[in-house]
Design a protein that fits this description.
heterodimer, A: mainly alpha, MetI-like fold, 26 helices, B: alpha+beta, D-Maltodextrin-Binding Protein, domain 2, 3-stranded antiparallel sheet
Amino acid sequence: MKRFTVGVRGRTSTVLGPEQGGFNGTGSSQAGEQDPLTPTLSRRERERGRAIPVALAVGVVLLPVGAGLLATLLPAFGLLPALGGRAFSLEPWRVLFAQPGLAASVRVTLVAGLGATVLSLAAVALFCAAAHASRPFRWAQAAVAPILATPHVALAIGVLALAAPSGIAARLFSPWATGWRQPPDLTTVGDGWGVSLMLGLALKEAPYLLLMLVAALNGVPTARLLAVAAGLGQPAPVAWLKVVFPAAYRQLRLPVLAVLAYALSAVDVALLLGPSSPPPLSVLVVRWFFDPDLARVFPAAAAACLLLVLTAAAVAAWLAAERAAGAAGRWWASSGRTGGAGLIRLGGWMLPTLLGAAVLSLVVAALWSVAGPWRFPDALPARLDGAAWAAQVAGMAAPFRTTLGAALASTGLALVLSVAALEAAARHGPAARPRWLGLVYVPLLAPQLGFLFGVQVALLWLGLDGGWAALVWAHLVLVLPYVLLSLQGPWAALDPRLVRVAACLGASPNLVLLRVKLPVLLRPVLAAAAVGVAVSAGQYLATLFAGGGRMATLATEAVTLASGGDRRVLGVYAVAQAGVPLLFYAVALAVPRLVWRRRAALRGA
Amino acid sequence: MMLTRRRLAALAAATPFAAHAQPAGWDGIAARARGQAVAFHAWAGDERTNAFIAWTAERVQTLHGITLRHVRLRDTGEAVARVVAERAAGRDTGGAVDLVWINGPNFLALKQQGFLMRFAEGLPSFALVDAAGKPATVTDFTVPVEGFAAPWRMAQIVFLHDGARQPSPPRTMRAMAGWAAANRGRLAHPTARNFLGATFLKQALHELAPDPAVLQQPATDAAFSAAAVPLWAWYDGLRPNLWRGGRQFPENGPATRNLLSDGEIDLMVSFNPAEAATGIATGLLPATVRAYVLDGGTIGNASFVAIPTNASAPDGAQVVADFLLSPEAQARSQDAAVLGNPTVLDLARLAPADRARFDALPQVPGMLTPAELGHPLPEPHPSWMTRITAAWEQRTSA
């Protein structure tokens, strides 16, 4: 073991050679370097202090989630003293299973949840197989950013304007192609099997998975693998699916499972696009929770527990299917067959169709917000009219302020916590307990409804609901995992020589952080902030439960108005809700270009 | 009868929930209300009502210095659940709900549990309410209001049809089944979880039940099964001919109006007698849409505002409730270009200047005259509505 003694400014310390360096990040096998200078404290003090940032990040997230899960589990078995439930009882479960149409609700939930995940993954994989490293691939990546920035509710409103029987899709082809002078009697949205819900979810999840796949591909030697496969006679798309995709899937597993968990428990999109009778399970939970008959809280908790069980079962089924698919894929790859390129190229059109539909949805929603009278089957409004905006601006001011305030507060806190945790892990290695950081991702995998419900009950108990603190904390629980996910890669990939040189020039670790690391990582930090703002602006359930009905954000207002409102008003809210994250994305793109206009390498870092 | 200051003071002192109010009369309430922030929890599904509440907020700010905030609800049950949850958690003051737009089963639930403040008879403008001519203003769904809520708008079931496409719509609920069979998919009613959808079924029950008088009593299992047999027989014949084959239902009244406006349906039910007139005036409906009342009359009711006993700003809430009853607000509410709701006031008791506000309201095409509206049928007891909704859910979820 090589050790060097370094004396700088009267302090001596031991620098470990590169062979001993390397913390283990959060389970990935990237080799990093420990900072060369560590202050001389007693070992115990050092150990305790180093774990604080990670412990804080994990605690901020796990405390509400854990308390929430508990506070959902207890009422499901009849235990909620505040509402008179003092004895263990299976009555809530009896009421739940006596609900007519429960089987249909579960069916809709599973079809929409599993279907959206499978569809998104298949679309992304086939597209990458058919079009990797070509121009359409770069276009798709560019189109992904605005769709990712748009909250789910705004996109769902756009889907309604697009796919409903009186929507733009029917209008574009009427009456010249279809002969329809009035909207057809077809169930395109809100069908009983949940297909429209599945498609609506896939519109947002496919771009997200594309982004994650592109990030995962960074660690795969794609060109080399494809060259070898081509040498064995495999066409490029087939080779990509057989060789590159399995290598990249390992990094993709967590995002896919997060997508599955979200799709099974989404409420806002289900309210807009799902069937109303029987509703998806998540809608049933929310309906019962807000029933004036307070005794309904117990079966609502039981239904939330059922959703948790369904999610766990779906994840287990997915992991089992992975193994089966892996075995089938290995058989396919080793069989020497070279067919399938045509099918893959055909399947590669799924993703561009989804992206195009998403963009068209947003455009139509924006058009509705400025439309005058617009009767079926006109493809364009009779005239443009700013009346809807003028009428809504006054009422939107307060929700807009709340949305912006919650987004900035939760994203700011998430950035501080993430930077502190990542920096501690980088400086102190295993002493900072970096493996715990994996626990921060629990809210991504646990269905929101499962613990937010319990958070509401707990807050009511403690008398804390309806305040800014509860709202920001609820948003923080869901924003922190995404911010951490976005920052981890760039933090670990930072060139360690920069830090070493700064240290040799006499900078303390904090100064290195402020003057070297953060400026160099400005672009990823702002991108992570933009992701955080997008996640916070889209939160419906968190605001509904933690805000206690006092805090209205653009998301809750949009869902409240969406059930029957004038489409113009809906369009206004969709545009306003999408505007907040889009603005931040624009800032995240523009500011690094401006600040580093004379440093080309940092602009593209 | 006019309420004197002494009566007011006696009333205020007598109510058990007014422990915090000194018997200082209306001036004291108005003085304390100045500067308060009132959270008005109201269903936000109708844009015009939202705009009216926004106008009310401006006026009470100017006139009384009160900051009114419209808390938008998907369903009034949300506010009821909030009040009940707060009381269950022991929060007896400083509640989130100051004023709530309420009637029917929701009102009964809160009144029975003693969560509502008794204030209506103390409002100065309550003296102008036409309690004799419009009994729905003091009896909500057969339940005596007794001052626990103040009325603010009248509603009556009307049916809308596009006169250009359907010149002769059905004039009874029985005839509607035959009409729907001839015009498949051209009639829609909101889901029975919504108050309008439930009232569509109540209207049918009123016409089809062997003895309509039983609806004025609380529903028992035996009475409900007996009365509901002809209702479900009729509905089973109607349902396959509804919009989307009766498998999907619009969420509420405005959603159904969108369908009529798009041309997806030709016949819809509404609670607003001026729905056609207001829709035409604001461009949401084609100019050929007309409203009508069924032969034999249709169900009508009044909407109320109530103040929970644990409200944070009860004085401000009372001032707002009084403003909603004022001739200025009632006249604006009756304006077809704004809301088109019939007023709860007795026009004969108004001062000439206030009476002139009503006379000056413009006549709009599609407005129903009071003669055409006739006398509304009374609402059944709230227990009938709860049972109908539950039974309908059972039948449509299977």
